[in-house]
Every structure is written in structure tokens, then in C-alpha cells.
Amino acid sequence: MNYFEMLLGILLFLISFVVFWYIYEDKNGLPTNWAFVGMLPAVLKNIHRFHPFCIEIMQKTNLTFEFKGPWFGNMNILGTLDPANVHYVFTQNFTNYPKGQKFRDNFDYLGDGIFNADFEDWEYHRNIILNYVRHPNFHQFFVKKTWDKLKNGLIPVFDHAYKHDIQFDLQHMFSRFVFDVECSIFMDHDPKTLSMDLPKTPVNDSLNEISEAVFYRHVLPGFIWKFQRWVCIGQEKKFKKAKKVLDDFIYDCIFNLKKDYKCVKMEENEVSVDLLALYMKEKKGDKFVRDAILTIFLAGRDGIIITLSWLFYLLSINPQVIVKIKKELDNANPINWEDHNEVNSKLVYLHASIYETLRLYSPIAFEAKNPLKQDILPSGHHVGPNTQIIFNLYAMGRMKSIWGDDCNDFKPERWISEKGVFRYQPSYKFFVFNAGPRTCMGREMALTQIKLVAATIIQNYVIAPVEGQHIVPDSNNILLVMKNGFKVKIYPSLQ
Ligand code: HEM
Fold this sequence. Notes:
Elements: H1 3-23, H2 40-45, H3 50-60, E1 64-68, E2 76-80, H4 83-92, H5 100-106, H6 119-133, H7 138-163, E3 168-169, H8 170-187, H9 202-219, H10 222-231, H11 234-260, H12 275-280, H13 286-317, H14 319-332, H15 340-346, H16 348-360, E4 366-369, E5 375-376, E6 382-383, E7 387-392, H17 393-396, H18 400-403, H19 443-460, E8 461-465, E9 487-492
Parallel strand pairs: 2-7
Antiparallel strand pairs: 1-2, 3-9, 4-7, 5-6, 8-9
The structure holds protoporphyrin IX containing FE.
């Protein structure tokens, strides 16, 4: 395409965009595919309510919808929530569905870490991380770190808030808590962001800005956000600043870790398996270590903050569930938190409440795949190397055809059999931890941490939401954070 054609294209695009913006109307509630601009006006008109918009479309289209992007925008997107497609793409024909270059472009700040890796690079990371999370001391190690932060961080801050009648944003408090714990686990450094004086948290703030910018990278044609990045405006300007804050922090941590090379010890006086040591052995340079450690750190951080926040929101509007969890905890005491099997068998109802929270509020809202070769999905849709397949995990938990007519209700009971045993669902249906060979590697760690924190709070405090709040997910974020947070007051539990 020469310059003249390109300019003409951009002009036609802008004119059509303005025209269709004003005359835009849905046909049967589905976006119309206009000349030049495709369905982009519909997306941008609904951007402020992107999740409900996706749910409406998916309900009307039997779970799969082809989104037509603007002419020359290179946006062939197939949105699907069909469990048969998920099973096919993530497990049955896994080798044809790498993350792909577009995914790596969107998540460029993660560099060469496991999230962006495909094929041999991915296998290489997966083996290293498996060695780490399967180390016999790992479970004990992260339980100890979580306990320490509960005792010396969250509990004193909650007590202080109660004594001084302070209301606070629970999501924000969980961000501080989890940030400190995950830094201690993966970087042997406690930044102590959770303390009475609530210091500024530039790294946490920068991570939120990054995930917002990444959302826009998914919905705008590549040439628009890449142009924004080039001239440094809009979301991309914020992204650049935020990435610098993040990089400074992570390189500092790596530098300090390398300096005394004691690394993250699993046991006192024993330099045993630790993540940094595992990666440093490879001698691939600081940038590589940064990418690898940052990716694991973020994988651990986001899911736990988001699940805890939505869990306590759902409990606040379903007090009958708290009563049942309390009863279960009373019967289960004492619990050996270092014994993963004991925790699972004693706390079935808490486990079910967490799964139900994850079903309704999947922390990672989207997944994306890019086929290597032409293929036909079980739903009959044709895909090829230019198609990006997007899975909206939030919408998937709210489909009547997948979860039944009561899909919008919070019912931990749906996860428990008549005999009181936890009822697992296939991962292509409950897709929150991903499915197939790329299944989340931190599921057990996440579930234990969430249970430990939830049990401590439920047994000792009453969380009372401040009235008049509108609690909704942020529709413009790849993570399912609460848009306006969750303001609460805290009281000691009467036991
Ligand atoms: C509730 C908490 C969590 C949720 C909902 C969750 C969910 C997910 C999802 C959806 C993926 C796939 C991402 C993708 O391929 O784009 C994933 C991958 C991954 N998760 Fe988690 N995760 C959680 C906690 C953790 C924790 C605590 C760790 C810490 C070790 C962790 C480590 C990983 C790793 C290493 C991968 C990459 C797996 C691969 O690509 O082979 N996750 N997780």
C-alpha cells in the first residue's frame, strides 16, 4: 500500500467512523458490520460497559461471535465462550494454538517470561517453575510468609481501623497485603506497604495503569495504539511511565537479591531450591531474570487480590453463607494450614464459596489465542493465522446455557454433592485457571492463601460495607478489579 492509498484509507475510515457513530444502531442487539469501520463503532459505544455488552452478544449468538474490525485494521477477532471450543483450543489441538505475536505485543512489558512464551521457550519456563512449586518445602514456605503478614500486617491494621472508626477500601488493603506477601515469597523483600500509616504504593498503582492500557490494546486496532505509543499520548503515555516505575522496582529487587545471593530460602540455613537461583543458573542476563520473576510475581498477585475482594463483597450480600463458613471453621479447628489435604478435606464449604466467587468474577477476564494453521472449531467457525480468538472468562461464568438459569446467583452449594463432597467441573467449563497443558501452576498456592486469609477474617471480624456504593467490575481492564473499590468498616466478631 503506498502513502496515497494509506491516507485515503485513513480519511475514509474517519469519515465512516463519524457517520456510523451517529447513526449506529444494533440489529437484533448485535453490532452491525459497516463498510470501512466494521463493528468498531459498536465496541467503542459500549466500551464503558464492555462486560455486559459481551454477555448480551454471547447470549444471542450461541456462545460464539465473529467480530469484524475496520478495513486495514487487521482485526479478525472471534469471541467464543463455547466449552467445546475451549476444550479443543486449549487441550485437544493445543499445538495449533500458541499465544502468538499479537499476544506478545499486547503484553510486551512481560518480555520473555512464561506468559508470553510459546513452544520450547514455554516448556523451558514451565519446567523451572514446576521444580519450584513442587519443591517439598514450598507449601510450608508460602504458608509461613502468609501467616507472618497476617499477624504483623493485616490484623494490626484492621484492629487500628476498628479502634479509630476508620472506613477503608478493602480491595486496596488486599492489594497492599498481597503485594507484601508475594514480594516476600518471590523476591525475599517485604516492601511493607501494609502498615498503619498506609504509605504510597507507586508499584501497585503502576500495575493498575498497565492493565488498563493493555485492555485498550485488545480493543483498538493495532495501528492506533502503536501510533499512541510512538507519539506517547493517552493510555500509552501512562503505560510508559508505569512501566518505568515497575522496572525500577524489579531491577532493584533483583540487584539486592544477587548482591548477597542468599535468595529466597525455603528453610533457615539452607540455600535450597529458589526461583531466582533457578533462573540465574541459566546465565541469560538481568533482563531475562526480570521478565521471568516479574511474570510469576504478577501471576501470583492479581488473582489473589481480586478473588479476596469479590469473595468478601459476595459474603456481605449473602450473610447466610458466612454463617455456614463459620460453622465449618468451628468444626474444623484446629487446622494444620501446612497440610494441603487436611485443609481441603476440612473446608469443603469455604472451598466451594471461593470457586463460586471465581465462577462469577474470574480474576483474569480474557484469554487470547492465535491459530498457526487454518482450522475449524467444534462450533463450525473457520479460523486461521490472522484470527485472534478471544475468550471472555467473566461472561463465561454468567451463561445460562453453561451454568443453568441460576447462573447469576451466588450459590456455593452448586459445587457440593448430596454426600457433602466437592463436585469438580471440567476445566473447559470452569475455565478460571486455564485448561490443558497451560493450566495455572499456582492454583493450590492461591487457594490455600485465600482460605487462610478468609478464615482469619471471618473468624475474627465483621466486615460492614459502607452504604450507597455501586460495586461493579472495571469493564476497561484485562483484570476483573472493582472499578470503585469496596469501602468497608470493620468490627470485631462476637464469636
Ligand atoms: C486465584 C488466583 C489465580 C488465578 C485465577 C489464576 C489464573 C491463571 C490463568 C487464567 C492462567 C493462564 C494465563 C494465560 O495463559 O494467559 C494462569 C497461568 C499461570 N499461573 Fe495462575 N492464577 C492464579 C494464581 C496463581 C499463583 C498464586 C501463581 C503462583 C505461582 C500462578 C502461576 C501461574 C503461572 C506460572 C502460569 C503460567 C502457566 C503457563 O503458561 O504454562 N497463578 N493462571
